[in-house]
Amino acid sequence: QSYMELPSPLLVIPLKGNWAWFLFGLWFAGFVSILFWKMGEHLLFRYHILKGSSAITDQRVLNICNELLSETGFKKPKFKLVLSPAASTPLSIGLFKRTTRVVLPDRLYSDQELKLILHHELVHIGREDAWNKFFMVFCTAMCWFNPLMWWAMRRSADDLELSCDEAVLSKYGSEDMKKCYTKTLLNFATNKKFPSPAPISFSEGASAKTRIKNALYWKKPRVWLSVIALLLTAIIIVSCAGNAITQTESSETSEPEAEKIITFGETPYQFTFTSNGDGTCVITEVYTDFYHKDN
Questions:
Q1: Using one digit for the tens of pLDDT, what is the confidence trace for 161-174?
Q2: 214-247 residues labelled b (16+ CB within 10 A) or e (exposed)
Q3: Whole-model pTM?
């Protein structure tokens, strides 16, 4: 397509004004309904989980949490640790920093379990995955009519959990810690469905079988694979940028192919043409007084 021409659509569906407003209203009703449905579902679940919760006062748990906070570089954390008898698995819930709660089921934990669980939730909080999930829900509400968006929302939630698993395993990659992590995942495995966009649950997202398998066979990525991936990415970016620059320079330095003088009435006009290479030309300049082109 020439930059002087508008591209032609492949298909045109003529609609009268009433039909256009009807379709817009249908889409808007679905968008609002799904968005408020998901938000209400989240708020009800939060109320259910935190209704009988209590702040954690066990100094052992607090010491492990403070140690992880210093290791991960958290500055002035605003979330709170709570115990909840209604929780079946560790989770973090809340979109805003001051309202975020890291919820632990009311049971006994070993030091290793606490370190792995809390590190997993801290990765979620540090990356603001609750907002990522809310954004996915918003996009799904925008495109509620597209089943692929619902599938993408679920798969994105799975990827968030798998990514956190890898972050924890890259920190504690010994065989003993890997076994402890898979055992902890198995202990908290649940078939309960959680609302979107939150909570961020320790055993939520991808199936327990997939996460346990990935944890058991996880290996630290080799450095040379990362280097090759970065080099390939850089080559693609540089080549695309070079092609864009070359096309821009060629269009800017192209010489006029011809000039023609046409008289309309008593007024002469000078047209400067540039060829498109497809048998058509583009008028680049027009002068009414070609003896004094400054005018």
A1: 888 888 888 887 67
A2: bbeebeeeeeeeeeeeeeeeeeeeeeeeeeeeee
A3: 0.65
